[in-house]
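Researcher: Please translate sequence to structure tokens.
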Amino acid sequence: MSRSVRTLFDSAEKLRKSLEYPLQSDSSIFQENLKVAINTYEECRQLADQISLFSHNESLDDISSADLRYLLIDYHLAQLILKSIASDRRDVLPRAREQFESFLELLDIYGILSKGDRKLHEQYLDAPSSFSTISTSNAALRRESKIARFTEEKDLKKKLEHLDQNPAALQNDDALLREIHLTNVKLCTHLTFQSLESISQEIHILALAPPTPIARTLGPDDRMLNGQTMKPYSNRLDNPLSQLVAGGKGGPILSKDGKPLQPFTLLDSRQRLQQRVFKSGHNLPTMTIDEYLEEEKRRGGIIEGGGEQSELRPEPDEDNLDKADEETMKARDWDDFTESNPKGSGNTLNRG
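Model: Translation complete:
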């Protein structure tokens, strides 16, 4: 039994709204439900094309208020495609961009685009790869344009919430129902241009990325190198100790009969471990403080002198006349120097 456009659209909307709950987009359940939603929207769009739900010869007034919501089939389909995960992101972006273009083209045919949106649509058609919602490079003008578009989006959401407050009134008020659908279409148009700008930027970034290397499956011939099988992968950079001792050769040390197959060294590690069983957990001192000071003194690490002993001067020997004459001459020389160089004479502060 074939389903109608209304039934398919309602099923697709239910699936789409279920994906808005906080689920991980990379989970298998999310991707499975996403795939079902995309297939349902595509089936709904194919059926709408078969029955010619929208025609190039019609105007906006020819579309009934109940059928206005079907204008968003391509938009919802594009948004869901952007959430899908593929091995190559470059396969997903053109597919979503194509659905956004179909959505804008349908709105342009019925004259739903506003003057500003029509101008953005023309800019996109002229240069899709470098499209931007703000064409100016002036920082102040870009900031004002962003604020204006954000305010417009906020007003559309606020108006849509206000119109949806009384669902029962929509059944008897065709004008209100029509206004709600057109407001929702205008909001989706606003978000479409943002998505197209993001897609263009992402495609540009992916074009600069290096190509993904192709994984090659090793065959039987590739697994043999010089008659030896390839070693299993390991994060270890150095070879095991047994291979280092054996000059890079691996294998067991002893044969099944107990015959040595490669040289090895017997260590007393068992005795050393046994001695450390009752050892303290910290390093014990190996010498006393006096022994340490004697060793430092022998190495010249201790400077003697200073303190009160440095103030004691030996009394002069009166019988040593040479020493007395030397001290007298030293005192006279100092007196002559102080007379020739009075205190402060050297500090002239650049005054000569």
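Researcher: Any highlights?
Model: The first helix runs from residue 5 to 18.
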